[in-house]
Amino acid sequence: MCICGGINIITTCDIRVCIEDAFLSVKEVDLALVVDSGSLQSLQSIVGFGNLMELALTTIWLSGLEGKDLDLVSHVFYAQHQLNEGVREFAQGWDLTVDQRLYFVATLNSAILLSSDLVEAVAAVKQKWKPNYSKL
């Protein structure tokens, strides 16, 4: 279950995963509590205003799949062991040394510096126009 403060916590995460039979709910109203307005703003940016109002005012329970449909959840696994393995695989992709991370950033930045889009971005900021980036 992910309720009340748990929803507040997950809205600050870039990637949110759960299993199919998870339950998610903004339950503060049922508990005679006031929802933290910061979490409501974060939640609105994820699920949209109408969905926020429904979640906050009706305190409905969402399954993991329903959470995915609202973008409240990034990925749904069908069993706990699948979730554990999926998260482990994702985390291993980020298990880099400081030197590897610096090399990665330097490589990306060097590619950007060679792009005409950098010149366009700087000119757009200086001239206060919307940049027109090249097609990828």
TrEMBL record:
Gene Ontology CC entries for this record: peroxisome
GO BP, sorted A to Z: fatty acid metabolic process
Highest rank taxon of the organism: Eukaryota
SUPFAM superfamilies in the cross-refs: ClpP/crotonase (SSF52096)
Keywords: Fatty acid metabolism, Isomerase, Lipid metabolism
The protein's annotated pathway: Lipid metabolism; fatty acid beta-oxidation
InterPro entries: ClpP/crotonase-like_dom_sf, Ech1-like, Enoyl-CoA_hydra/iso, Enoyl-CoA_hydra_C
Gene Ontology MF, one: delta(3,5)-delta(2,4)-dienoyl-CoA isomerase activity
PANTHER family documented for this protein: DELTA(3,5)-DELTA(2,4)-DIENOYL-COA ISOMERASE, MITOCHONDRIAL, ENOYL-COA HYDRATASE
Family that this chain belongs to: Belongs to the enoyl-CoA hydratase/isomerase family.
Protein name in the entry: Uncharacterized protein
